[in-house]
Amino acid sequence: MFKYNNCQFSLLKVFVRNLSKNTKNLSKKIKQTPILIDKNNGMNRKFGADFYGLPCIELAKKLLGQILVRCIDSERRLRCRIVETEAYLGPEDKASHSYQVSTVGKKIGSTYLKPGSACVTSVYGVHLVLSISSLEEGACVLLRAAEPICGAEEMRRQRAIFLQKNSKNPLIVNKSIRIHRLCSGPGRLAAALGVSAKLDGEDLTKSNKLWIEKGPEEIAESQIVECPRIGLSIGSGDWIYKPLRCYILGHTSVSQRDKTYEKELQIASGVLSEDGKLYLK
Description:
GO molecular function: alkylbase DNA N-glycosylase activity; DNA binding
Protein name: DNA-3-methyladenine glycosylase
Catalytic activity: Hydrolysis of alkylated DNA, releasing 3-methyladenine, 3-methylguanine, 7-methylguanine and 7-methyladenine
Helix content: 25-40%
Pfam families: Pur_DNA_glyco (PF02245)
Oligomer: single chain
InterPro entries: Formyl_transferase-like_C_sf, MPG, MPG_sf
C-alpha cells in the first residue's frame, strides 16, 4: 500500500476537493446547455428561388442529398437528408394530381404556385405526403424518403401522434423503429416531420417552418438510380413504366429498391460487366 506523510495527505485532500468543485461546475454548465444547439444554423443557407426553378425531372435529381429542415417550434428542429424522390410532370402526366384538374380547365392547387412551394396532399384520405413545385405548371417533385440526421426521437413522437389521430389507440411511441426507416416512404416522412395541411403552399425560400439547405456533398449521376414510380394505379397507363423515380444507390433509407435498374446503372457506370460480374481494378 502507498504511505503518505501529513503534508502529502493534506495536498491530496485539497486536490480532491478542487476536482469535486470543478466536476460540479461542469455538471451545472451541461445542464444549462439548451437541447437545441442548432437554433439559427441553416437559416442563411436555405436555397433560394433559383434552386427550384428547374424542370421537374432535373429538380428531382438535384434534391437528392440535400437537407430538409422542419422547424416545429423554437425548441424542436428536425433535419433529414433527402434520398428518394419522384417527378410528377403536371397536366400531361396521368399519375399526377394536376392531370384531372387540367381536364376540367381549372388551374388550382399548390402545384400551380411558383417553384419552391410546398404541396401537401392527402393519399387515400389517410396519409399526407409532401411535394415541391417545379418550373412547369402543375408539376412537382414528391419527397419519398429521407435519412434522419437530427431529432430522431421527436420524429418517432410525431409518427405516434399521427397514428393516434387516425385511431382510438392511446399515444404510444414505437422505439423499435430503426432510425434509418423513420422517414422511409412519403407517408412516413410527412408524419415524422409533423407535416400538416397548414403547410400546403408554404414558400420554402422564405418559410421559417419548412425549408431545404445544401447537403454535405453532391450526388454523382453514377449514384442516382432512375426507375418507375411506385404505387400507381392502372389508370395511369404507360406512365406507370416511365423512369421518374430517383434514389441514391445503396442507401438504407430508400423505401424500395429496384434491382433491375440498379444493375443497369452499374453496368452503364462501368462497375458491372454486361453479365453482371463485378469489375475488379
